[in-house]
Design goal:
5 helices; mainly alpha
Amino acid sequence: MGVMDRLVLSDGAWERMAPLIIGRPDQKGSTGRDNRMFVEAVLWIVRTGSPWRDLPEVFGDWNSAFRRFSRWSAKGVWWRIFEAMSDDPDFEYLIIDSTVIRAHQHAAGAKKGGLKIKPLVARAAG
């Protein structure tokens, strides 16, 4: 079973999302390449918690997907999609909130303000 067998967007869900995205063929400017597959890529990242670099090749170049994700974020596209889809029980797991994002293991327990270097008493006296 491959990645393509695990896509989550139904036709009905996509029809609700499609008018909310940017880069549609009916808009001026550049048209996004396969918007539906790009949304699937973002959903894959959200579901798996994987870093962008681990995005399967079937979704395209990870860096292009990340930059596109960032542009959509800056323009409020994800917020519009979230508002439109929040009543859909199939998407209740998409709580995009910093309270559920795991930090890197080295980020746990560190004191705020960074490392403080104190001179040794023996060196200061000598």
